[in-house]
């Protein structure tokens, strides 16, 4: 299905905005990027998008398989992997081989990876790095609304909101083309309120900035709900007709009077009242959360509290209003719908649901009883590697946990302890550098597929050219390994070099199977076709039939719950997992910066994207410790340390440090972060841990 033309309309390889772009290959073979007027980015790109094609012919690109660090043939690499998998599973059982995926994989790859784990490897142990990104918002959306779609309305609604509350997001840096919606919203006279411990570029542009103590967003949400109730600002008819659980939620909120919440969060009472009143007075109001609110050991409850606030005001399902979360990774939405999560099957089906297992098994041609049950979540899976009873081998696709996982030094040692580590990548990432086998795979401009953006809009990624000689695709790798392991879609053995009929390397064929597998599920793609996506500028799921339109706006008539009502769930604030004390007296929070993306394995290789590790601290703290701007500093937690230059700024709280998580080596911020997990989503508490800082002396 490769395009023959030397110019294709496609989408950026980075964040979930999935900006439209055009790629052109010159007669000299150089690839040029042009912005495209697509509904999400409206002709805009950020500097990461403009420079994305530089990776295609980068001198550090992998061009041959590596076996124990040395060039090898594909046959040698495949033989080594298959022998290792068989040896491990014969000795320790099927679950001793694990799979780790990524939120940047196309829908076709995410779907095939889940199938590969459960049919070819027969292992329960598959999860992905999206567990570190969207899992708390996903879990909260599922239990409140019965569905998890990041934005249940088109992005265009945001610019039309009279009041916009944005919690824990710095979109001016993380997805700059999105920021134009915020600019339009302000220019229309809308009120814009940003919640963030840092005065980020997004916060500084807002009408009002609330700067809470890290880890107190849940208390803040409860305080806002208290004010809404106390001042009679709720929507009683909506609550009676469209929700359940309101009485318990209202009683819990009664304990979070404004003065108490000011003590818990540091946000002044006047700002809390102004926020609650602005939301209630608006004809159209939108509440958005992102990683700052969600990457906590209470992230699900925090998002639930903001959903409760939105429901109390009658926002979800009302045109131009509602609650949504901002998906981070490029296919963070689609990547969690099609089976690479430990507890899910395609279509967002639960893996322990007998009906779901039967449906998917019929598509795969296997016995439902042969599909393994739920496995370990991402951090728990990584932490179990090499341990007694844990996996002894792992295959990694589209992820770099050596940099991105919390408590990263421990996870690095766990990866090194494996009998077999296989990594598919196009650069020698920090994780690939310690692997036994590295397989070079195609980049985004060299293969077709689909992505699902933060609105739930299914998009087409188109290939400009074929991969260079000697480079495979992730789909081809999985199909070949399935064949060599003797697995077909119906569980029968294959002989010799015959390719498994159950695992196609062609993305179009995989998507057609995905449509059947998701039919009738929560995330129903049955009516989505590549042809429709091309013709309609993307198709919003759910779309159960080819003759039906997609669903850009959810909840207008009912919620996809058994009784059609949203479920309000009472939650209580609780402290962060690791409080500050005399030894570690400061909070550390982590995040992204403008020029870099995720673990930096791609963006750190582009010369036009400057940057390096740093630590932000407040001038009062810097003066007390004798630290000047630019001085090397050491930050220590109970788990490790990092060193980086100091940035002395007035835009951060005096009790808080900030470090970007894109960097490896001594500047790796995740050497510091902890492994406390949300009890529901299993999201690690990336956004706050206790640290101390000191100058690095000669």
Automatic annotation (TrEMBL):
PROSITE patterns: 4FE4S_MOW_BIS_MGD
Domain of life assignment: Bacteria
Keywords annotated in UniProt: 4Fe-4S, Iron, Iron-sulfur, Metal-binding
GO BP term (any one): respiratory electron transport chain
UniProt KW Iron keyword: yes
Pfam short name (any one): Molybdopterin
InterPro entries the record matches: Asp_de-COase-like_dom_sf (IPR009010), MoPterin_dinucl-bd_dom (IPR006657), Mopterin_OxRdtase (IPR006656), Mopterin_OxRdtase_4Fe-4S_dom (IPR006963), Prok_molybdopt-oxidoreductase (IPR050123)
GO CC annotations on file: membrane
GO molecular function: 4 iron, 4 sulfur cluster binding; metal ion binding; molybdopterin cofactor binding; NADH dehydrogenase activity
Limits of the 4Fe-4S Mo/W bis-MGD-type domain: 5-60
Name this polypeptide is given: Molybdopterin oxidoreductase
Species lineage: Bacteria, Bacillati, Actinomycetota, Actinomycetes, Micromonosporales
Gene: nasA
């Amino acid at each position: 299905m490769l395009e023959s033309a030397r110019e294709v309309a496609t989408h950026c390889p980075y964040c979930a905005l999935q900006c439209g772009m055009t790629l052109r290959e010159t007669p000299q073979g150089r690839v040029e990027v042009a912005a495209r007027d697509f509904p999400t980015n409206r002709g805009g790109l950020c500097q990461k998008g403009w420079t994305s094609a530089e990776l295609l012919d980068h001198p550090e690109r992998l061009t041959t398989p590596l076996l124990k660090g040395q060039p090898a043939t594909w046959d040698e690499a495949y033989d080594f992997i298959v022998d290792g998998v068989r040896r491990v599973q014969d000795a320790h059982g099927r679950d001793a081989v694990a799979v780790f995926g990524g939120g940047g994989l196309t829908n076709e790859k995410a779907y095939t990876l889940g199938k590969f784990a459960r049919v070819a490897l027969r292992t329960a142990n598959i999860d992905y790095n999206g567990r570190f990104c969207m899992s708390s918002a996903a879990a909260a959306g599922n239990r409140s609304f019965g569905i998890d779609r990041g934005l249940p309305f088109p992005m265009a609604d945001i610019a039309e909101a009279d009041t916009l509350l944005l919690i824990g997001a710095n979109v001016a840096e993380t997805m700059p083309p999105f920021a134009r919606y915020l600019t339009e919203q302000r220019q229309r006279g809308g009120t814009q309120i940003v919640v963030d411990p840092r005065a980020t570029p997004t916060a500084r542009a807002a009408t009002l900035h609330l700067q809470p103590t890290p880890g107190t967003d849940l208390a803040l949400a409860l305080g806002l709900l208290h004010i809404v109730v106390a001042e009679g600002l709720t929507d009683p008819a909506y609550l009676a007709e469209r929700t359940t659980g309101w009485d318990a939620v209202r009683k819990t909120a009664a304990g979070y009077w404004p003065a108490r919440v000011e003590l818990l969060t540091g946000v002044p009472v006047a700002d809390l009242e102004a926020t609650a009143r602005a939301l209630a007075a608006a004809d159209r109001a939108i509440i958005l959360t992102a990683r700052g609110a969600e990457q906590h050991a209470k992230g699900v409850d925090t998002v639930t509290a903001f959903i409760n606030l939105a429901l109390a005001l009658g926002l979800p399902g009302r045109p131009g209003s509602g609650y949504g979360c901002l998906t981070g990774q490029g296919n963070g939405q689609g990547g969690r719908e099609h089976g690479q999560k430990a507890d899910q099957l395609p279509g967002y089906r639960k893996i322990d649901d007998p009906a779901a297992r039967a449906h998917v098994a019929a598509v795969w041609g296997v016995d439902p009883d042969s599909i393994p049950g739920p496995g370990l979540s991402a951090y728990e899976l990584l932490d179990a590697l090499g341990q007694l009873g844990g996996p002894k081998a792992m295959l990694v696709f589209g992820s770099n946990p050596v940099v991105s996982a919390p408590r990263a030094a421990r996870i690095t040692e766990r990866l090194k302890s494996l009998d077999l580590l296989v990594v598919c990548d196009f650069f020698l990432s920090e994780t690939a550098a310690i692997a036994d086998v590295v397989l070079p795979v195609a980049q985004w401009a060299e293969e077709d597929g689909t992505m699902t953006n933060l609105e739930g809009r299914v998009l087409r990624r188109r290939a400009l050219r074929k991969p260079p000689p000697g480079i495979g695709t992730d789909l081809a790798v999985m199909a070949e390994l399935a064949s060599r392991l003797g697995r077909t879609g119906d569980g029968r053995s294959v002989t010799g070099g015959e390719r498994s009929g159950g695992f196609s390397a062609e993305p179009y064929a995989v998507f057609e199977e995905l449509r059947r597998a998701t039919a009738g599920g929560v995330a129903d793609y049955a009516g989505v076709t590549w042809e429709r996506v091309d013709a309609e500028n993307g198709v919003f799921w759910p779309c159960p039939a080819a003759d039906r339109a997609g669903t850009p706006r959810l909840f207008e008539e009912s919620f996809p719950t058994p009784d059609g009502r949203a479920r309000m769930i009472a939650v209580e604030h609780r402290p962060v997992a690791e409080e500050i004390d005399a030894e570690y007296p400061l909070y550390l929070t982590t995040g992204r910066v403008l020029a870099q993306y995720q673990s930096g394995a791609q963006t750190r290789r582009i010369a036009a994207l400057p940057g390096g590790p740093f630590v932000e601290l407040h001038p009062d703290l810097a003066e007390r410790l004798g630290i000047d701007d630019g001085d090397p500093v050491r930050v220590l937690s109970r788990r490790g340390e990092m060193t980086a230059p100091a940035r002395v700024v007035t835009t951060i709280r005096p009790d808080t440090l900030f470090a970007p998580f894109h960097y490896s080596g001594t500047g790796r911020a995740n050497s510091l972060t902890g492994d406390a997990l949300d009890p529901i989503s299993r999201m690690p508490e990336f956004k706050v841990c206790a640290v101390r800082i000191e100058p690095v002396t000669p």
